[in-house]
TrEMBL record:
Stated name of the protein: FYVE-type domain-containing protein
Coiled coil: 15-87
GO terms for cellular component: cytoplasm
MF (Gene Ontology): zinc ion binding
UniProt keyword Transmembrane, yes or no: no
Organism of this sequence: Rotaria magnacalcarata
Protein origin, superkingdom: Eukaryota
């Protein structure tokens, strides 16, 4: 019995040791589970942060693609506008040169016209007064109620409607005006000499 009691006592001590070891294991298990939960939460946060960063990278890649497309469109538009600007500048330069040529031609034409008028005595004739003229300067028909007086806008003489029926656009006029047959021939001859 004493041996059995010793064995029981030894088993009790062993049981207490095992219980302490089990309690320690339980504490270690609880601590490990807590650490594991903390690690799981940290891992989940890292995964969420990684997903957010991936989303940001994807958004940035889309933005970069759109910016590249916009840059290509802008470069093409700028190239087109540069070409148009160069075309406009060339046209403007050509028109400027044309205007200068026309101005020189007009100046020469005016000079020749003045010389021609002075030579033909057109300037000396002046603008006739209605009361001084009784008959047409060309057909010599008398004026009356049915035959009215009309000035030639080139030489200033007075004619009937039939003799001054031609209309031409003269230098200094914005629309065609009446000219006599002689002035009409003279103006058309000058235009033929001066060219277009």
């Amino acid at each position: 019995i004493e041996q059995v009691n010793q064995q029981i006592h030894g088993l009790g001590s062993t049981n207490e040791s095992l219980n302490r070891a089990l309690a320690k294991s339980d504490n270690d298990k609880t601590s490990l589970e807590t650490d594991l939960n903390v690690e799981k939460e940290f891992h989940q946060r890292l995964q969420k942060a990684l997903k957010n960063e991936k989303d940001k990278v994807l958004t940035l890649q889309i933005d970069i693609h759109e910016l590249n497309s916009m840059k290509q469109e802008y470069d093409a538009y700028r190239k087109e506008m540069t070409k148009k600007q160069n075309d406009f500048e060339k046209k403007f330069q050509d028109q400027d040169e044309t205007i200068e040529e026309l101005a020189l031609k007009l100046e020469a034409y005016i000079k020749r016209e003045h010389e021609s008028r002075e030579k033909d005595g057109i300037r000396a004739s002046g603008w006739m007064k209605d009361e001084d003229v009784k008959e047409c300067c060309q057909c010599r028909k008398e004026f009356g109620a049915l035959r009215r007086k009309h000035h030639c806008r080139q030489c200033g003489q007075i004619f009937c409607e039939a003799c001054v029926s031609t209309k031409l656009t003269l230098l200094g006029t914005n629309k065609p005006v009446r000219v006599c047959d002689e002035c009409c021939k003279h103006v058309l001859a000058q235009c033929a000499v001066n060219g277009p």
